[in-house]
Specification:
The protein has ten helices and 15 strands. The chain has 335 residues and is of the alpha/beta class. A hairpin with a 2-residue loop joins strand 13 and strand 14. The radius of gyration is 20 Å and the shape is globular. Bound molecules: NADPH dihydro-nicotinamide-adenine-dinucleotide phosphate.
Length: 335
């Protein structure tokens, strides 16, 4: 698979360049940056043969099969549509877009063009979350009654740019973290929230965007979900608790980009530690995407997952804005 990076980003340099290169017969051919000097330096630093500032030129340039899009959120839509129109497979960062209509258009276009589309929701690739889903599917906690997501962190200094001060670039904790939590809960429970009620706040970092949010979601099964995201909590722990009629799952430290944390199953027999695989989350995501592009299986999170998880985040934001309960509008994805 010959890749182009659309976006000279930190997530690419920190995780995805490695994840793309570790796959068999995979290479990174080119990178797109809006700044020629920075793009050239990024290409040199990461041994990428070509850098471009124009997406048409990149798509017409040295041959590629797929693009990985990790620009700021407002750019994903137009860039994905161009890559799809050029017949490239697209692995796109979350949130797919800044509006539901745009996200649906991207996924529909990929469908019509017959290219593979994936959304880079990393958490569902974690061994921890795969093990939690197995516990639920095996009935180890009975019927799920409620979920509590703890995802309040301290945003690292180097990420305190557009995320905290640029609403037009898709900043704010809801498009940044709530969207991941929506995806994780959808993945673990195998169902999509029906409605949400939320509050958001600006508690020290956000400039024109929220830096903290709390919300409650109703699931079709009747389960309730409570979710907390923030950029301003240096001493909070992350985790997820899932409570059922026969037991509870306590997963600590698992809302992470790293394969870390602990899982305990608590039931009538006591408290049991649950082991899980500690593979690299992004390696697995790219492996499944690459296989899907080669005609086998599906990406770990496909386009519809990206659309639905965005829909939940948008409903959370609208609920916080309006002060009203919001039914989640999933639109009409093409498949
Ligand atoms: P960055 O801020 O690192 O990169 C976004 C854009 O900012 C780049 O495309 C680049 O523009 C520009 N940029 C990057 N570094 C610099 C710099 N030093 N000086 C000037 N401009 C710079 O964003 P992230 O990597 O944190 O996020 C990118 C996307 O990935 C977002 O959609 C985000 O939501 C997603 N993401 C996903 C994660 C996951 O685990 N799935 C984790 C982190 C982010 P240009 O390309 O024009 O040079």
């Amino acid at each position: 698979m010959r890749w182009a990076l659309i976006g000279a980003s930190r997530i690419a340099s920190g995780y995805m360049i490695d994840a793309l290169r570790v796959q068999p017969e995979s290479e990174i051919v080119s990178v797109l940056s809006s700044d020629a000097t920075r793009g050239a330096r990024y290409a040199e630093d990461h041994a990428i043969p070509h850098s471009f500032t124009d997406l048409d030129a990149l798509l017409d340039g040295p041959p590629i099969d797929a693009v990985y899009i990790s620009t700021t959120n407002e750019k994903h839509h137009a860039q994905a549509l161009m890559a799809i129109a050029a017949g490239k497979h697209v692995l796109c960062e979350k949130p797919l877009a800044t509006s539901l209509a745009d996200a649906i258009e991207m996924v529909s276009a990929a469908d019509e063009e017959g290219v593979t589309f994936g959304t880079n929701h990393h958490l569902r690739n974690a061994g921890s979350h795969l093990a939690i889903r197995d516990l639920i599917d095996e009935g180890r906690i009975g019927d799920v009654q409620s979920v509590r997501v703890f995802h309040a962190v301290s945003l690292p200094q180097q990420l305190r740019g557009w995320r905290i001060n640029d609403a037009s670039a898709g900043g704010g904790v809801i498009p940044d973290i709530t969207v991941h939590d929506a995806d994780t809960v959808r993945f673990l429970l195998g169902e999509d929230p029906v409605d949400v009620i939320a509050k958001s706040a600006t508690s020290g970092l956000g400039e024109g965007v929220e830096d903290s949010a709390m919300s409650v979601w109703s699931m079709p099964s009747g389960a309730m979900v409570q979710s907390h995201e923030s950029f301003t909590h240096p001493f909070a722990r992350t985790g997820i608790e899932i409570h059922g009629t026969k037991g509870s799952i306590h997963a600590d430290g698992v809302m992470s980009q790293e394969p870390v944390g602990t899982i305990h199953l608590v039931d009538a027999q006591g408290r049991h530690e649950i082991g899980f695989e500690t593979h690299n989350l992004y390696h697995r995501a790219v492996r499944l995407f690459s296989k899907a592009a080669a005609g086998s299986g599906r990406p770990s999170a496909d386009g519809i997952d990206g659309v639905k998880s965005l829909a939940v985040a948008l409903a959370v934001r609208e609920s916080a804005r309006s002060g009203t309960c919001q039914r989640v509008n999933y639109g009409e994805p093409s498949k």
